[in-house]
Amino acid sequence: MAGGSADAAAVLVGLNELYGARLSMSELCALGASIGADVPFALMGGTCRVQGVGDLLKPLPPVPDCWFTVVMPVTAFHPGGLCRLRQGGSTVHPDCETQEAAVRAGDLDAVCAAAGNALEECSGAKDTGAIKALLREHGAVTALMTGSGAAVFGIFRDETSARAAAAA
User: Fold this and answer.
1) pLDDT given for residue 120 in this prediction
2) What per-residue confidence (pLDDT) applies to 77?
3) Strands 56-59, 67-71: parallel, antiparallel or unpaired by DSSP?
4) Quick one: which H or E segment has residue 100?
5) Is 52 helix (H, G, I), strand (E, B) or coil?
6) Nearest to 128 by CA among 71, 82, 59, 44
7) CB atoms < 10 A from the CB of 6, how many?
8) Alpha carbon of residue 35 to chain centroid
9) Tell me, what's the pLDDT at 148?
10) Which residues of the chain have pLDDT under 70?
């Protein structure tokens, strides 16, 4: 999940410190955006609404307390499905306005209800549906594929349910 982007963000922060460049967060984010779309978010951290190509970030209050279980499918991920997204589009469109309002209201159920991943149905990842179903069977409020995949995450109200899902 944002592996390369998180690494790039760490390198930028480290070099800024090591060489005493004193770049502001805004300058680091602009530099990070030229490296990759997720780098500015990895630099900012916390809860943000991200728009544009990852270069427009709006800090938000923390998401309501919850637990995550992340599952990495055993089968290979085939990114060729992402080409189909460009051709045919996606039927999934997260409701970002509603989700932002839910974060501000501290309403975990509404945050999860408004969530979605437009890349999920086009990804070509074979096990996503079964993993999501298993996470929901164990109490996930929602379950989605991460970014462009192939990992899948479930959001849980409590640690016990999240750990039970991880064990399953």
Assistant:
1) 82
2) 56
3) unpaired
4) helix 96-105
5) coil
6) 71
7) 16
8) 18
9) 76
10) 1, 75-90
